[in-house]
Specification:
The chain is 35% helix and 22% strand. The chain is of the alpha/beta class and 155 residues long. The C terminus is likely disordered.
């Protein structure tokens, strides 16, 4: 299983990105499981409303890295796990556990001053790199930044 974790210091569209990513991967023939690692349970609730062609399992626990591999159904070894992680300001234990297992961390960052300030308060690069010794390969996961920009306005 290849795990993709959507993370950010605060609430910035991680659930939406997780849903679209899961749909896109599924439409391309990949086996997808969604993991809701956010206490808000939006990913699970959206799934329960009938809008996803893949399963979403609740997994908001500081033991994510230990529990989720055991939750993965047989035959999904080559699948992709898309993880919606709660904002790291208040849910660092769950986020740390997810990042211990993740193969790819996608940092969701809208370009607003509030979000830039939060990045200074909780520097994600250091947060992710500090977890490396706890990972099986002792390396931080690959990390991409998804900067979300609002519509441009005429001036």
């Amino acid at each position: 299983m290849f795990y993709i974790a959507n993370v950010s210091p605060r609430s910035t569209g991680k659930t939406t990105n997780s849903a679209w990513m899961g749909h896109a991967l599924h439409e391309r023939g990949r086996r997808v499981i969604g993991y809701d690692a956010d206490d808000s349970r939006h990913f699970s609730r959206w799934h329960d409303a009938g809008s996803y062609p893949f399963v979403v399992q609740q997994a908001a626990t500081a033991a994510f890295h230990m529990n989720v591999p055991r939750m993965t159904p047989a035959g999904f070894e080559d699948g992709i796990g898309v993880v919606d992680v709660g904002h790291l300001e208040d849910h660092q234990a769950v986020g740390s556990s997810v990042l211990r297992l993740a193969d790819l961390a996608i940092v969701n960052l809208p370009p607003s001053m509030n979000d830039v300030e939060r990045m200074e308060e909780l520097p994600l690069r250091e947060f992710i790199e500090d977890l490396a010794p706890l990972r099986a390969d002792s390396k931080p996961p690959a990390t991409w930044v998804a900067a979300v920009q609002g519509p441009e306005r005429d001036q």
